[in-house]
Amino acid sequence: MGSAPDTATVFSAWMAEHGGIVAKVAGAYAREERERTDLAKELMFQVWLSVPRFSGTAKAATWIYRVCLNTALTWRRNAGRREQRHDAGIAVEGLPAASPGPALAAERNDLLDRLYGVMHLLPEGDRSLLLLQLDGLSYRDIAEVTGLTENHVGVALTRARQRLAAQLKGVLNELE
Question: Which residue from 63, 86, 97, 147 puts its CA 20 to 30 A from 40's CA?
């Protein structure tokens, strides 16, 4: 008789397949390396805690995004009151790389750093929507993660892209 996989097994499989989500969300919501590492650990901790609540009605990636984005938003709001959390043995370094290969890693990291820098200037809701779209999620999947309707996702993404374009134009003007 087979039993349901335990939390550790599910979590390990999720991180092997979708660990890049943790890195992307941490990059979008934390500016400095130390903050990104702390946030990534918190995201992974919350994903771990969420495993027993996962019913399988959504895709694992959608579930992980929902947990990570909600955690990141709460983390940003609580930044002033945050206590240092002790390392729970979660290795952030073991997350799958979000880069296509070592040859393009430096260039891509530079572009991502600039994009994240501009995204930090946007409201948190815009950041969430843009991050999900940049990762290739459909409007339906974004709606499932955020709790918005598909139509509202389309409208909100259009406005978020306009605000991002305005911020990018401002950054480009500063560089000239």
Answer: 147
Decide: 21 and 61 in contact? Cβ < 8 Å: yes
Burial class (CB in 10 A: 0-12, 13-18, 19+), 151: exposed
51 and 108 co-located in one domain = no
Question: Does pTM top 0.70 for this prediction?
Answer: no
**Per-10-residue mean pLDDT, the chain, length 176:** 72 91 90 89 92 90 92 81 46 49 59 75 88 87 91 92 81 55
Q: Are 94 and 15 in contact (CB under 8 A)?
A: yes
For residues 142 and 154, give the distance between their C-alpha atoms in angstroms, rounded to a whole number.
10
Domain count, the chain: 2
Instruction: Give helix then strand counts, H and E, for the chain.
Output: 7, 0
**Contacts for 25 with CB less than 8 Å, ≥ 6 apart:** 39, 43, 65, 68, 69, 72, 131
